[in-house]
Structures are given as structure tokens and as C-alpha cells.
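hey so i finaly got around to running the thing on Phosphate/phosphite/phosphonate ABC transporter substrate-binding protein from Marinomonas transparens. pasting the sequence first so u can double check i didnt mess up the copy paste, my clipboard has been acting weird all day
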Amino acid sequence: MPNKLVTGLLLTSSLLLSASVFAADCSYRGVLDEKFCDENKDLVADTPKDSSQWRDPSTLVFTYTPVEDPAVYKDAFHEFQQYLSEKTGKKVIYYTVHSNAAEVEAIRSGRLHIAGFSTGPTGYAVNLGGYVPIAVKGTAESFQGYNLIVITRTDSDIKELADLKGRVIAHTSASSNSGNLAPRALLPNLGITPDKDYQVKYSGKHDQSIMGVLSGDYDAAPVASDVFHRMIDAGRIQQKDFRIIYTSPRFPTSAFGYAHDLKPELAEKIKEAFFSFRFSKDMQATFGGADRFFPITYKEDWKVIRDIAHATGTAYSKTGLQKLAEKDAAKAAKKRAAKLAKESKAKS
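ok and heres what it spat out for the C-alpha cells, dont ask me to read them lol
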């Protein structure tokens, strides 16, 4: 027993010493997780000083935010994956994620090296996952933006925001900028407060909110304008069936970037691949006319998003991510239960 006690004390002392050395080695980390350092104060994790902590994997793992059907984007980014492989000299595979929380956990755990995160969850990826955003889809002139739009059916008696009072409104997910955070930050200034003036129901995704409004499951929904217009272009919905009663200022679309601890030479090749790649006509059609990845910085270009998050009390912390994961899990369980009930009813 004494030997075990001594061993335990030695281990504890070693861990405390390691923690203190790590803390002493980082003079500033801002709001980043304790795993990361931000001594240049650009709000994203610095490359580790110790080269032994740099990663240089033989296979790079890439994914894109689960905004809609993941399979659609796996195909859409196939050309870029090939280009990324050519530029880095490494195999690139696509890793399908089904929730924002799962994507953040993947970058945090090191299972994901390069990714596109939707606007809202980008903050979680930066603070908790060591994610370094470098680009947004765009053109030679600017990055591609989108708006929060509030939609209802054309035949609805909802004509303006005031008419949302007492109704059932679909928000997408807790971490979504246009689907939840922006309406909570912006609409109260226009006389409508979510959860107070109307009942919020989470749909899970933008396309599910849109289809839910169309089917009559929800009276209206705040959604991302780019998702709405992509669904129209794809023939999934018709614009004549919807009325837009509010359009917000412009936000940046999904951020693209890489894990902070990749070997610097590899990170440079990844950046070169992003900024020299040009979208094919098929990709341009899929992504609303964007023909390239436009360079951005998290500090400057995500300021409006961080301001919205702060205004709504959203913290890009472990606790915030845990709550996001719990909501994702609850929605997934509800969806599975509904599917089983539907199958059971069909059999009977």
C-alpha cells in the first residue's frame, strides 16, 4: 500500500509539474482551451513551439459541415480532395459527420485534419479544437456571404415579424448562427423575442426547417439564405411556395481551415491548395456561383458572429459544447423513434 501511495504521489506531482511547465510556456491563450496558446493574439491556436508535437499524417482527413445531406457534399468536394492530394503528396479521405458537435470533437481529438465548419460552430472549433480558419467560398472580389431569412408559406397569414407571436417556429440547432443565434440576437430589437413571443422547436438542420414549413409542421423558420436558394436551384422546393418576411445583414458562410498542430510545411501546402484551387462549373453551380476559396481571418471576419454569440450568452466552451452534443443526441434519438414508429405503423 505505501508503495502505491508513493507512486500515486509521484504521478500527481509529475502531472502538476507538466501542467505548470505548460502554463509557464504559454504567456497568453485568451479564451482558447488550456491545450492551446495564442501568443500572437490572433484569436486562434498557435503552432506548437515543440516540433515533436507537430503532426505529419500519411493520410489527411477532410470533411464539410453537416448542413444538409452529407453525401451531397462528399461528391461536391471530390475534385478539391484530389487537388489537395496532389498539392500535399498525401492521400485525402472524406470523413462524414452527422452533427456539429461531432465535427468539433473530431478536430479536437485529432481525427480530423482539414474541415469546413458552418458559421456558428466555427467558434467552438477554434476555441476547443485548435482549428485555424483561413478561407470562405467566394470570388475574386469577396467572400461569399449569406443572410438570415425568416420564411413562411405563401398561403400563410404571417406577413411580418409581428405575426410570429403565438406561433410555432423552427430553429435549426443551438449552435447555428442563422438558424438560432442570430434570430435570438437580432429579432428582439425588432419586437419579437424567441421563446417569449413564439414557441421554438429545433428541427436539426436548415433543410429540415424549410421542409417542415412547407409541410405545415412549423408556422415559420429562420434559415440561411444560401441553403434556401440551393434547395430551389436543386429543384427540392419552389420559391413560389414561400414568403420571406425578414432579411438580415450579410454574414460569412462556412469557414475552411486546418488543425493548428500540423507540421508547418504541410500547413503551407494546404493553404496553397486552398488558394490556388478553382471551382469547376459543377462546383460553382452547387455553391451559388463561388469559384474559389477567398482568404479570411477569424479575428476580423468572424467578429460579427462572435458578437451575436456573446449577445445570446453562447460560450464557446466545453460546457457549451457538451450542451450542444446533448441536444444533438436528443434530436437523433427523437428522429430514430419517429422512424421506428413510422416503420411499425407501415407493418401494421
